[in-house]
Amino acid sequence: MRLPPGPDRYRFILGAPVVTEPGKRWLYSGGATALLARIIAKGTGKTLDGFARETLFDPLGVGPTEWLTDRHGEPIAASGLRMTPRDLARIGSMMLKSGMWGERRVVPAQWIERSTSPRVDVDEIHSYGYLWYSGKFAFTVSTGPRWDRSRLERFLSAIGNGGQRLYVLPSLDLAVVITAGNYDTPDQWVPPARVMREIVLPSIL
To answer: What is the reported pTM?
Structure first.
């Protein structure tokens, strides 16, 4: 259920009750992402999309993007950013190189490590860091006409509504982007998970 927009989203978010001790239970909130965006905008004196363009998108060579805005004209931080799959894969490639793009340092390596380190368990498979998910894929690799073997592969992931995914697999030096349109459905995770487990990983291992 989506609530109607309030007159001041930030006061609404900050006024919400704290239901558990921080770091003990995972509860996704787009409001937390909205607060982060506001902090960035206030701290830099730039709009969120302008800051992202200057410090991340342009250094990576990302082409035109579209960021949906609210009725006040502010970018909706938790959703609404649109870019091509190839451009999203550039972010994945940068993550594989610990924040480097070619010879240029785009993101500090310490922040890459810190933001992707698990902070709280989401479920039996996923953990959550600072806006990054992590986990392990379990899949089967065929080793011959009669023999199969199971394998686990660690991944980092950026997860979007509808089945949008950026998977980063450091041990394979691999970044994979998957787009889908199963918005607001409880099983939206199934197609991207099957693509990875049944097609991508078995085809390269």
So the answer is: 0.90
